[in-house]
Amino acid sequence: MKRLIAATTALGLIATPALADALVDNVNGMTLDENGRVVRFDGILMSPDGKVTRLLRRGDKRPQKLDWRADMKGRIVIPGMIDGHGHVMDLGFRALSLDLSDTRSLDEAKAKIAAYAAANPDRPWITGGGWNQEQWGLGRFPTAAELDQVTGGRPALLERVDGHASWANSAAIKAAGITAKTASPGGGRIEKAAGGAPAGVFVDAAMDLVKRALPAPSARDRNAAFLKAQAILLGMGVTATADMGTTIDDWMTYRRMADIGNLRMRVMSYSMGIEPAQVIGGSGPTPWLYDDKLRMGGIKLYLDGALGSRGAWLKAPYADAPGNTGLPFLKDDQLLNLMSRGSMDGFQIAVHAIGDRANQQVLDAIDEMAPTYTGDRRWRIEHAQIIAPEDLSRFGRNGVIASVQPVHQTSDRVMAEARLGQERLGGAYAWRTLMANGARLALGSDFPVENPNPFVGWAVAFTRTDAQGQPVGGWRPQEALTREQAWKGFTVDAAYAGFAEGKFGRLAPGLRADFIVVDRDVTQVSPQELRATRVLETWVGGEKVFEAK
Predict the structure, then answer these.
(1) Strand, coil or helix: what is 400?
(2) Judging by beta carbons within 10 Å of its beta carbon (0-12, 13-18, 19+), is residue 96 exposed, middle or buried?
(3) Lower CB density within 10 Å: C or N end of the chain?
């Protein structure tokens, strides 16, 4: 019996028998149990609804009557990878627009922008992102005047790689009505030129001043962006992700896709603030929908910006910008109010906090709220990048989850040293200490800020080195995880962080049959070989949804 899949095969989604008693056999299989111990098997028996009924080992008798059987010819099979923190629609839109993430200088970026503008003459705005002035060695932000030189008078708005700053040209600034008299909003900063005129970069909350002038994407645009993002993720072996900051339009896109059978991966949705959750969930989290593929169970809040734009909120001024401690987004009472509004309806609270002052603020709020909002709350702190040493032990209280993205450490290492100075790095990207203090670590990538390839993040988590193996021995290697701890963070614990451990996250009886076929034994290869892992097939709920060409 075969389920027909709507026309997404062009994006690499493969129709496979489903909803039948089935056996995926002759595999070199490995998964983790709930405690992170490796379990080996050589067959997966599945029920008609796409769940594992039994893991078979060598010598176990195979059922005689099956609706279908797949012979994997001894290939490596592991659970589907889970990204604990990503932005699905942003990934799709970024992939369909101008991508500057590979540029190494301002001149290289300008050349790429000019080529994109020439190749897309009908686009009313030039949009995209991925720029990074640190990667360019610029020592400052780029300017509107520099963008004007290559955009031919059309409005242009390009997001920084971390999504916490935007670079606009003069036409975009004019379209948004921003002048020298426009004040920076709370939680944001307009970079100013001589005389007070906007220089071209808008940080954090100030980004919205320009974004409001952008033409809104159509439903068709959103569908295309989602399908592109899903194809990228499934092709990398990511079968589920937390979507951090789902808007009502995003949710409607997921529902549209699911209604016609095109939602093939699993999305653990966290509302962009309180309002979408109240509209979508009403009195509380939604149920799991579409065979456990979609649920809005949490609310995402923001406390500060990012290190790269000096928006992360620090206890002391930036070492490379005296007098600047970053951008706090919410006062203590505002944060408590928002967390209470979500918690009283049963939503899980996930708070973005990068700087040590922001992390202290959310830990203070959790300590204050925990006696009132009891039970299994699983408070989440997203990123948890820079933590004061005296606050590290507080993560073990109240079941706080540290949702961290290992690749940020390799991307940010040199910048973090400059922003903080050597003496303030004691709580920076302190994964092992967080775990030792009782925090559960959910690992992810923060795509599209970073590449969503989970095997790269896995390798970073236990080596603390980049693609070139630098620095030798790892950066602050005392904070490295073990290989198994890192694997657990991208599977078992990422599912737990989304209240999904009873649905997926490992291969075991009663859980969804989400698995991937890879070209090497990921438990044995070197870190460099792990980074190069190739996904051959991706299966979700017992259906093959991707096959490498």
Answers:
(1) coil
(2) middle
(3) C
Nearest to 295 by CA among 275, 269, 271: 269
- Is residue 192 within 8 A of residue 199, CB to CB? The reply is yes
Residue length of the chain: 549
Indicate the pairing of strand 156-160 with strand 165-168.
Answer: antiparallel
pLDDT in tens, 383-436: 999 999 999 999 988 999 999 999 999 999 999 999 999 999 999 999 999 999
How many Å apart are CA 168 and CA 539, to the nearest integer? Answer: 42
**Tell me: the pLDDT tens digits for 360-382?**
999 999 999 999 999 999 999 99
Evaluate the omega torsion of the peptide bond into residue 121 and state whether it is cis, within 30 degrees of 0.
no
In 3-state terms, the chain is what percent helix, strand and coil (to 5)? 30, 25, 45
C-alpha–C-alpha distance, residues 70 and 107, integer Å: 52
Task: Answer whether residue 211 shows pLDDT above 70.
Answer: yes
Q: For residue 239, which of 213, 265, 220 has the smallest C-alpha distance?
A: 265
Q: Cα 452 to chain center, whole Å? A: 7
Question: DSSP alpha helices (H): ranges in 236-324?
Answer: 248-259, 274-280
Residue pair 280/251 in contact (Cβ under 8 Å)? The answer is yes
The SS3 call for residue 146 is: helix
Please state the pTM of the whole predicted model.
0.89
How far, in Å, CA of 308 to CA of 295, rounded? 32
Range 203-208 contact pairs with CB under 8 angstroms and sequence separation of 24 or more = 203/164, 203/165, 203/305, 203/309, 203/310, 203/311, 203/327, 204/164, 204/165, 204/305, 204/309, 204/311, 204/327, 204/329, 205/327, 205/329, 207/159, 207/164, 207/165, 207/166
CA dist., res. 404 & res. 298, Å (int) = 17
Read off the tokens for 502. 């009873």
- 337's CB contacts (< 8 A; 6+ apart) are none
> 33 is written with which tokens?
């149990």
Q: Are 42 and 28 in contact (CB under 8 A)?
A: yes
Confidence of residue 11 (pLDDT cuts 50, 70, 90): very low
Query: Residue 244 has which token pair?
Result: 């951090």
Contact 23, 63 (CB under 8 A): yes
Tell me phi and psi for residue 453, to 5 degrees: -60, 110
Burial class from Cβ neighbours inside 10 Å (0-12, 13-18, 19+) for residue 220 reads: exposed
Query: Which amino acid is it at 33?
Result: D
All residues at 6 or more sequence positions from 79 whose CB lies less than 8 Å from its CB, including other chains: 31, 32, 491, 505, 506, 507, 514, 515, 516
- Sign of CA pseudo-dihedral 441, 130, 87, 303: positive
